[in-house]
Amino acid sequence: MIRIIIILLILIAPCASGQTLVDSLKWDITNLKIQKKSLVRDSLLCEKYLALSKAYKWTEDWQPYKPDSALFYIDQSLPLAISDRQKAYCLFHKGDMYQIWNWGVKGNWIGSDYLSQSIRLFVKCRDREGIHIAANALYVDFASRYRGDTMFTENQLKVLILAMEAQTGENFVFPENFQSDTALIPVRAATYQKAIDACRRNLAHWQKIKNRPLMMWRGEVLGYLLYESGNHKKEALQLLLETRKIATELADNGTFLNITGHMAIWLEQKKDYRLSIQTAQEGYILSKRIGWTRKEAILGNILFRSYKALGIYDSAYFFKDRSIAILDSLSIVDAKKQVDLHNEKKIAEKQQAELQAKLLEEGQVRNYMLIAVALLFVSVIYVTWNNRKLTSKNREISQALLKGQTTERKRVAAELHDNLGSSLSAIRWNLIGLNRSKLEPTEQDIYDTVLDMVSTAHENVRSLSHNLLPEELEKEGLEVALKRLVSKLNQSKKTHFSYQNLAQPLRLEPRQTFELYNVILELSNNILKHSQASLAAIELEQNHEKLAVRVWDNGRGFDKQNEHGSGIQNIENRIFSLNGTCEISSGKDAGTKFEAIIPARSRT
Q: Phi, psi (5° rounding) for residue 559?
């Protein structure tokens, strides 16, 4: 009998060391929910929901992960909080989520409100550490939104002082009736001095215990305060140079680039354009090397203005054109991310409802099996049936996701074509209507550049609206869509594309068709942008129940060891999601060949 119990426990209770943190927390929550309601049970359940939300908030590599799930579980924890301190921590993490994910202007105000509520509760509980972490997060939230001609507002500095003093102030006084007024009030000199003094004490504390990361972060803020106050600019620049040196030693590229950007702007404002160029170029080279394109565009604009002020127009417009190209590409990427986020949110409620039903059902089954060993075989049959049911549910969810993506892509494509495309077209015709001959030669050059940029943007919007979901792909299938794609690619007269289909009529699922088309489209765009090839080909070939997809070109190729872009990773992920395999072979001046193999059945 003991042996049977041990075998049963091994079968039905997953080993704790083999569970992920998320699975373990869900298992604990399921067990708590079926217990009788009490203050102890609610407190434990609140802590588990909070921990689960934090698990969804970050992955192991410190990147944001599943914001909808994180927000869902923090909302579950708040009503269960039985103490002000517990509620304060829940509100802090909810406000911190809005700050981290930066969900637009409305999201920022909501995040600030939650952080302010948490500070008021921490003050009520006299929790000094809680005041520090919440005030620090609120200061960062304000700072991210109020970067204009001045770096600080009166309210920002008050929150910064509160965070600094709560952490290291020896005679810290708990504030009464804390209010986080978000109005843009000019900073008083007394507040600047108070903030500088608090920051100096905080920096000295970390210098004393030789905590270099916190020395760097506090040194950066203190440098900005000293410069912005207007009375300590020389000291500020010296401190920021020392802080930037620490950032270099710690390989903190973000801090290094932030300081470099501000110093370059300040030097530009002082009309020390040559030193501004030298400083900005240090950051520009680093951002380009590590692939931080937004920083590259910002620093490129500083270089443009400084070179222009010196009359070095070739260099100035080189950096201007580069910055514009980067910002255009980033806007397209951001638009695609918004589409993906919208699709994720549409199915979130359905997934959460099914998840709750599944957790409750599985928890009840496991508890019954632990209590009644005699029901072992019946329980095994039940689990098998339940797995089949879940497989069917997953298939339904996958179909619903594809349908939702298709519908949303149609809507976004229509919005791009009808609204943005029409606006760009109207701008272009208004520009054409201007009398170019009446402009100065320099103004004519600028006119031609602007007209060319608007025309290019108009074409890009038209192409993007079509490529989001080509009509022929949905109505006539992959074969017709690829032929039409090759015809459009050849209109550029930059690279000649050929198309060959050696496959039999295929029975492809809608998702397979959609993913394959997007893979081929991504590869074709990469060939046009980067390969400098004269010839390229798209080939399909069937072997039994496998479909081979090949895309190759005779261009300059690339070194795979040094290729860190996300485009190749996205292509590989799409193929892996179809249970397929892929291989990319390339070399310098040897062209590039991509081959993917996925399961597919011939039509009979």
A: -90, 110
CA distance 570 to 523: 11
**561 vs 323: CA distance, rounded Å:** 27
Q: What percent of the chain is helix, strand and coil (3-state, nearest 5)?
A: 75, 5, 20
Summarised one tens digit per residue, pLDDT across range 334-383 is 555 555 555 555 564 565 566 566 656 665 666 666 676 666 666 667 77
Which residues are CB-neighbours of 551 under 8 A, at least 6 positions away?
A: 520, 523, 524, 527, 536, 537, 538, 539, 593, 594
Taking the alpha carbons of 438, 439, 440, 442 in that order, is the dihedral positive or negative? negative
What is the rounded CA–CA span in Å between residue 269 and residue 461? 37
Q: How far is the C-alpha of 97 from the C-alpha of 539, rounded, in Å?
A: 46
* Residue 117 neighbours by CB under 8 Å, 6+ apart: 91, 95
Per the structure block, which two tokens stand in for 277? 């160029």
- Using alpha carbons, list the distances in angstroms from residue 396 to 339, 390, 399, 512, 573: 21, 10, 5, 16, 21
Distance CA 321, CA 477 (A): 39
| SS3 assignment for 160-191 | HHHHHHHHHCCCCCCCCCCCCCCCCCCCCHHH
**Cα 380 to Cα 327: distance, rounded to the nearest angstrom:** 57
List the one residue out of 78, 74, 175 whose CA is nearest residue 124.
175
In the prediction, which pLDDT does 12 show?
46
* Cα 198 to chain centroid, rounded: 34
Among all chains, which residue has been given the structure tokens 């991310």? Answer: 337
Tokens encoding 53: 């939300």
Tokens of 351: 């997934």
Q: How far is CA 28 from the centre of its chain?
A: 30
Global confidence as pTM: 0.48
Gap between the Cα atoms of 56 and 47, Å rounded: 14
Residues 90, 81 contacting (CB under 8 angstroms): yes
* Residues in contact with 371: Cβ distance below 8 Å, sequence separation at least 6, in sequence order: none
Q: Would you call 563 helix, strand, or coil by DSSP?
A: coil
Q: Which amino acid is at 414?
A: A
